[in-house]
């Protein structure tokens, strides 16, 4: 994977994180996020972060799993 592709994937990952968090923050009072959805999101972020060698982000997701 060349540097241009890595940057493209990093930007995509950060965009996806931003979009998901924005969606969750816009929920109406009383609406909840299913635990399975949060788990899938964190699992996806952790895997992508690992592949892109974003060690800090990967460590954060590991702590959130705990």
Structure in words:
With 66 residues, the protein is mostly helical. It has 3 helices and no strands. The protein has helices at 3-25, 35-51, 55-65. It starts with a helix and ends with a helix. The model has no long low-confidence stretch (mean pLDDT 94).
Sheet with the most strands, sense and barrel status = none
Helix content: over 70%
Please, how many helices?
3
Strands, total number: 0
Low-confidence parts: none
Which geometry do the CA atoms define?
Answer: globular
Class by SSE composition? mainly alpha
Q: Could you tell me the mean pLDDT?
A: 94
What order do the helices and strands follow?
HHH
Beta-strand content:
under 5%
**First-to-last CA distance:** 31 Å
Cα gyration radius (Å): 13 Å
Descriptors for this entry?
mainly alpha; 77% helix; globular
Tell me briefly what this model is.
By secondary structure, this protein is an all-alpha fold. Helices cover 77% and strands 0% of the residues. The chain is built from three helices and no strands.
Architecture blueprint of SSEs:
Elements: H1 3-25, H2 35-51, H3 55-65
Helix pairs in contact: 1-2, 2-3
